[in-house]
Amino acid sequence: MGSWKRNLHLAVPLAFAAQLAYGQAGGLPGETSARQAADTELQNSINAEAAARAAGDTQLQNTINAEAAGRSAADTGLRNSINDETAARALGEARLQGNIDAEAGARTAGDANLQTQIDQLRNNGGGNGGGTVTVDCGAGQTVSQALASGAKQIIVRGACHESVTIAKDDVTLQADPAGGRIDGPDPDTNTVQVTGNRVTIDGLTVTGGRNGITALGAANMALRRCLVQSTGRTGIVYANGASGSVDQCTAQSNARDGIAADGAQTTITNSTASSNTRFGIIISNGSTARVGLTDRFVGAGNIISQNGGAGVVVSLGSAAIVAMNSITDNGTISTSSTRAGVSINQSTASIAGGNTIARNAGTGVVAFGGASVQVGDSSFGLPTLNTISRNGNTAQPGGITVILGSTMVVRDAVIEENNGQGLLFSTRSQGQLINTVIRNNVDAGNNTGDGIRLTLGSGVLPLTPGSTVTGNQGFGLQCTDGESSAVNTFAPIVTFAGNGRGDVPNCSGF
Fold this sequence. Notes:
The chain is α/β, with parallel strands linked by helices. It is elongated and about 160 Å long. The N and C termini lie far apart (about 190 Å).
């Protein structure tokens, strides 16, 4: 029994294994075929991918080769450009060096020439200088160098850029016939400063610097045929006791005044002062001046025009003679406090004759602060007629204004067509009227168109030869208060006619 059971247990697995082996033997060829087909397909895919990768690698290699060739060509072009630029720079540097060498040679030759002149001067002058030197500014020579050599006659050729101080006596600084110029490089330093005596500056153009040409305590500095313009302050200055003359010069477009005398003495003739920011000519601080009159009392008038402030100013204890000038169109800067043709403040002036004072934005002639003025002065043997016309505005009206305790004699004048009164005396001022015509003055505002106006305790004394007051828009003669007065207000001493508001409405005698 036990043996049978064991045999049964063995027979079952054997039968199952036999059945399984039979099944496997029957399905093996089909599976093998399927696996072979799959392997073939996989191999084809691998081959296709390998071929594609090989083609991509070939294309990539071609791209790399092309880029390498392009970069090589660009490197070659860049190297060629660098080589060309290097060659061009070398050529330019060679040319520049050639120019530098040529300029240095020219300057060396010029310096040698100047040194030769200096040596000759020293030899001829016994070691003390003298003689004539030509300074060629274009070759790098300087006026200062020539002065240091002791030269007394210096001819300036071209434009020198320097500040010059002339401390020695009897020096002449003259422009070359082809032109000579000194440009001041320092706005705080005078372009040409003179402290030596009897210095002459002839024909030069001077620009820049603080002041253009300045005499400090120098006696008899003579300026002739010069042009001084576009300086940082004043064109021509005489100061600190200096003296001298300005003849046939032009002082224009300076940042302050054209010509100034400050505690000095000067004669200004045949010259032009125009387009300066402040005054054309100022005589101040105890100075004396002849403006338009030579030292032999010969008329030689100036043109003084288009300055920002007054044309001529005489102030602070100064004295001036003003004759034979054209003083017109001044006061072009509306903010200027003094826009008159001629302004006299705390000073004495003779507006001798031959002057045309016209179209100034302020009063034609104003005297104030105790000034003493004569308009028309026969002392100098000149014509005594002065024409004062078309001056004034609402703020500074009139032909002639005399105020603040000042006095004026008006002789042989034509005062006409001014904006405002023809002649005004105000604030305890007084004067005389002789042989004068006051006509056709118009109202500039506030009823200012009188021929003669007296106000605030002022007075006028007309004398023979008689005067004429006619055709004025306001009164012929008006006193605005009981303390102002006039006498001799009758013909033939004064003839009134045709004044718009009447002739003499209310003035009493003294």
